[in-house]
Fold Glycosyl transferase.
Amino acid sequence: MHLVVAYWGDPALLDLTMRSVLAQTDPRWRVTVIDDGYPDPAAQQTWGEHTDERISYQRNDVNLGVAGNFEKARQVAVADEDADLVAFLGSDDLLHPTYVANAWRVHEQHPDVDIVQLGVRVIDEAGEPADGLTERIKRALMPRGAGQHVLGGETLATSLLRGNWLYWPSLVFRREALGRVAFRADLPTILDLALVLDLVSGGSRLVVDPAVCFSYRRHAQSASSQGLHTGDRFDEDRRFFAESAGRMDAHGWPRAARAARRRWVSRLHALTLAPAALRLRSGDQLRAVARHALRR
């Protein structure tokens, strides 16, 4: 299993992520850190020449940005013919000791399924449990019922276009499947969902396994949340959903196309930002919120 970290950020958080990798009970992993030129040299000093031969470190000569570095991470993973499984870890998330073991367990149970969503616990910047509105909405959208759920086709596409309930850094992919898609440079804050939907449109299925073995760190100022406040994410979302509606129609998936046109969770997310815009007396943000929530 190849764990690829597209790194940019606090090196102390990266250290925590990497230590959680080293603590895995199942040794069938390797990890590559791809540093997108973060100014602090600490990551290179700590992980550039680590004694564990399963750890690799690369530093980009130029900053590629979010989409560019993720695409490089995908290419590095796909080129590793010794790895059957791939995960794109966040450089601030935490693996529980059984993460790799659970990934292999589910893969061995469903060897023909391309994507695995393992159980996730959400934490905040300080590492404390977090359960905000985003998490409550995701839980409401996720498949319900005990045990594993295997989804695919129009059912999965409709569900994800209604609202993205996946936790991207925890997902496990079959390496072979990742060779059929690429990250889109024009969708830096929604590139994860775009890639998953490309896979689903091509016939990939996803299995949800409830075993909690990953801690996802929810930051108040993530790349996507910053984009929301500037309006960039709104514009990107509308473009993506409009394009997806057309693709789903062409694919013969009318329910998925309808979910993309309605994009009700995306609209709701925008409305939750209206109180903050009012407090800041930001007319630009209020107009951006209203435009995104109300425009067809």
Notes: The chain has two domains: 2-219, 224-294.
